[in-house]
Amino acid sequence: MRIGILGGGQLGRMLGLAAIRMGLHVRFLTPSSEGPTDGIGETIIGDWTDPAFLTSFTDGCDVVTCESEWAPIDLLEEIVDGRIPVFPGSSTLRAIRHKGRQKTRLREAGLPVPEFVCCATLEDAASATQSFGFPVLFKAFRGSYDGYGNATVRTEGDVLGAWDKLADRDGVLVEAWAPFVRELAVMVARRDDGKCVVYPVVESEQRDHRCHAVLAPAAVAQSVAASAREIAIAAVEAVEAVGVVGVELFEMPDGRILVNELAPRPHNTGHYSIEACHTSQFENHLRAVIGWPLGDPSLRVPAAVMINVLGHRDGETSVASLPEALTIQNASIHLYGKRSVKPRRKMGHVTATADSLSAARVAAETAAKHIRL
Amino acid sequence: MRIGILGGGQLGRMLGLAAIRMGLHVRFLTPSSEGPTDGIGETIIGDWTDPAFLTSFTDGCDVVTCESEWAPIDLLEEIVDGRIPVFPGSSTLRAIRHKGRQKTRLREAGLPVPEFVCCATLEDAASATQSFGFPVLFKAFRGSYDGYGNATVRTEGDVLGAWDKLADRDGVLVEAWAPFVRELAVMVARRDDGKCVVYPVVESEQRDHRCHAVLAPAAVAQSVAASAREIAIAAVEAVEAVGVVGVELFEMPDGRILVNELAPRPHNTGHYSIEACHTSQFENHLRAVIGWPLGDPSLRVPAAVMINVLGHRDGETSVASLPEALTIQNASIHLYGKRSVKPRRKMGHVTATADSLSAARVAAETAAKHIRL
Asked: A202 vs chain B: nearest CA distance in angstroms?
């Protein structure tokens, strides 16, 4: 069985490794190869908006999925015309890619989200800002990730600058500041027939608008965890996703959960599952898109902590610092095989499992700190 | 960094997956490809006894290792002439490949082994048989594995047949029957500087002379486990192995441990370590041959059971039965990507982790039973 995967980044890499373990073949299509899928199945590099190219890519694939919500799934669906399953489908991606549409869909489904207004004009944005009170968040409708495409508006004087920077032809999303106590995340794997499994609730810590650490399980009250999992499932059902979806959540001071945003694919906050869960998010993504029975998402260890390894310079990747990191016991090091390193670029991650979050954290942080690619 | 691996079977496949995770590149050399390393790094197929071919294979490799003790390491060492590290070295393989030499080396190092005699003639074999008393084991000096190359001699009438079947130009190994209560195994990872780490003692159950199940940890007395680990380290030191060595042991009724045999590479009885240990045997083999710090071999779960998936027919591999196996929770399925299936051929394995050996065993056995490739 051959799985076609649109995209060639680290998520594709980890999907590929999970696929091979189960005896599946993988073929990646990516507009430019940075290295992560080199040496894993086949990687085809070319213009993925070219129908002829997409057609030849799909030849021999039994199912096609993507590791990026920006993949040309619409075009692909047209081309395969039902002959090959494509998951997640374009209607799911359309509902998720546009931040305004995504939030609206979630709110319409009755899910708790921060207050927001889709603002078509500068005047709308200014008035929404005034009604929410400072600070507010301006978010670009398209293409934002890891803090890019977002701006915190703290005074009236920030409004115009944020608008100019982020507004697209249809405006900008203006969102009330949610004074959360913690950011949580839940992975949900869902099949086309609606069956799904839910991963444990994890805590995600940001540094400089980028995920730094993931703590599994999150040290939240049981009622909060239960509510987070319920809301995550409902959010995934609201967009009818198939595959794994990363659901980012806010935990409010009173224990309420708000949905922050969805990613229709394996997610950085789910990497811990490779070592820590009976079935990783990557394996369950594959099982879901193939239509196979979903695997047990529960933890097989008491605690796990994942720390991202970011680039600190521009240049070629080096593994010179790896031996020092490898001295840290019970830490698993994942490098993404990117040929070049850039400041803040996600180059790898470390997951440590242990009897307690604090022990896992020390190991993972120490190992990650040693890695200078 | 590029690792050259001689051999292209399932051990190479799992070494390759571990290597990629750490950002290493792998290149396999194999006389014929059966599928397992397809789509993992590069696989070069050709005559590995051809010096020119071996030379071009080693170009660009930073270290070379093997996944089979039958790889032409002698020739390779000559070719690279110290320019590239080659582990395990030919002196280790020479000490292990020949069953008589292996047993003699272990006995000379003061290690407990079953009584044996290297018999150059039929008369020697008959006389050794008589002195041990029935039953005895006849073992071919070269090329035996998984019950092939062994014969149990129960009466005087069996001697000639066993000799004719198994004796090489230098005779045959005649071994006294060891009335063991359990077969145990221990993986040891050792570096060139002598540093080593030892995996937990596991129990290995055979069916029809072939490993069926591995139980981790073995339910043995602490003193037995301690002695097994000590003896395993001493055995690996006796052959100066670098990399992972699988040490097969017998537990005798009085708790004594005998060494059965060594495999100078990751071993079937160590596959459980992928899910169950902080560092898998494959990762530690790579770390050892590169000279990197060795990782924590301890269990990260209370218990794990591995069950081998064997072929039951001749033909092309099919994954049709996989969905049924995937319904078994907390079982991880590994298929080796072999293009053709044969009766008794090792096609994959299942590892389940759980709070108890009995729970892990039920899950692993049930999942494995469903897989009909």
From this structure: 20
Q: Is A316 within 8 Å of chain B by CB?
A: no
> Which residue is closest to B10 within chain A, CA to CA?
A21
Nearest residue in chain A measured CA to CA from B27: A39
> What residues are paired with B299 via a beta bridge?
B277
pLDDT at A147 > cutoff 80: no
The answer for residues whose C-beta is within 8 angstroms of residue B15's C-beta and 6 or more apart is B3, B5, B26, B65, B67, B266, B282, B285, B286
Main-chain phi, psi angles of B282, to 5 degrees: -70, -45
Q: Over 80: is that where the pLDDT of A146 sits? A: no
Give the distance, in angstroms, between the CA of residue B295 and the centroid of all CA atoms in the same chain: 20
B243: region left, alpha or beta (phi > 0 left; psi from -120 to 50 alpha): left
What is the distance between the alpha carbons of residues A136 and A159, in angstroms, rounded to a whole number? 10
| Cβ pair A187, A244 in contact under 8 A | yes
Contact of B330 with chain A, judged by CB distance below 8 Å, is answered with yes
Q: What's the rounded Cα separation, in Å, for the pair A44 and A60? A: 14
How many CB atoms are located within 10 Å of the residue B221 CB? 11
* Residue A70, helix vs strand vs coil: coil
Q: Where are the alpha helices (DSSP H) in chain A?
A: 10-21, 51-58, 73-80, 90-97, 99-108, 122-132, 159-166, 222-238, 273-276, 281-290, 322-326, 357-370
Q: At a CB cut-off of 8 Å and minimum separation 6, what does A214 contact?
A: A185, A202, A203, A204, A205, A268, A269, A271, A272, A305, A306
What confidence tier does B337 reach under pLDDT thresholds 50, 70, 90? very high
Interface A-B: count of C-beta contacts within 8 A:
104
Q: What is the DSSP string of B34-94?
A: -STTTTBSEEEES-TT-HHHHHHHHTT-SEEEESSTTS-HHHHHHHHTTSS-BSS-HHHHH
Q: Where are the beta strands (DSSP E) in B253-361?
A: 257-263, 303-310, 315-316, 331-335, 340-341, 346-354
A227-283 pLDDT per residue, tens:
999 999 999 999 999 999 999 999 999 999 999 999 999 999 999 999 999 999 999
ipTM of the complex model: 0.94
Of A134-148, B121-135, B351-365, least confident by mean pLDDT is A134-148
pLDDT of A141 > 90? The answer is: yes
B257 pLDDT above the threshold of 90: yes
The closest of A308, A300, A265 to A279, measured between CA atoms, is A300
On whether any CB of chain B is under 8 Å from the CB of A333, the answer is yes
Measured in degrees and rounded to the nearest 5, phi and psi for residue B15 equal: -60, -45
Q: Is the peptide bond before A135 cis (omega within 30 degrees of 0)?
A: yes
- B133/B136 Cα distance (integer angstroms): 7
A144 pLDDT higher than 80: no
Minimum distance, in Å, between the CA of residue A21 and any CA atom of chain B: 5
Hey, are the CB atoms on A23 and B335 less than 8 Å from each other? yes
What is the C-alpha to C-alpha distance for residues A126 and A170, in angstroms, rounded to an integer?
A: 15
